[in-house]
Amino acid sequence: MPRSLDLWYALSPVTRAGYGLLLMVLLLLAVWWWQIKPTAREQTAREQQRLVQQAALQESWREILALKPPVIAHAQADIPKAFSPLDFHTPDAQLIGWRPANQGGEMVLEAQWVSIPRTFSWLAERQMLAPAFSITAQDKALRFVLQVESDDGG
Predict the structure, then answer these.
(1) Cα dihedral 123, 124, 126, 127 in deg (nearest 10)
(2) Which residues have C-beta within 8 Å of that of residue 149, sequence separation ≥ 6?
(3) How far apart are the C-alpha atoms of 141 and 106, rounded to whole Å?
(4) How much is the pTM?
(5) pLDDT reported for residue 149
(6) DSSP code per residue over 75-117
């Protein structure tokens, strides 16, 4: 028998188990170093890349926030148009009735469908709100009833 095997069998079973355990631990360390350690390095590299990107993003935001909108001369500023129910009498929408109230009133239009969304943008241009409205079908057009009130900015 080869001499190395004689030495191995001469050891007690507990000592052989200890050497076997030591060998397994060394093999696990080798596998960890070979498999897991590169993954940790990749993760560290990704973290470094993320930090660099975050710094660049913060710098971009600083540059964006440093930009100021151009100063608009008073003559160029948007002055809201005054509200008049007669402005809503167009070829697509006819003003049927207007009942004024304290801060607005009720406007009744006979309108085509295409003019209804445009009506809301016209109200917004004139700083008016439409808290309630109804649309009902009639013979050739839609009956569009709007409750309008002034937008006091509050």
Answers:
(1) 120
(2) 101, 103, 104, 128, 129, 131
(3) 19
(4) 0.47
(5) 92
(6) TTS-PPPPP-GGGG--SSEEEEEEEE-SSEEEEEEEE-TTHHH
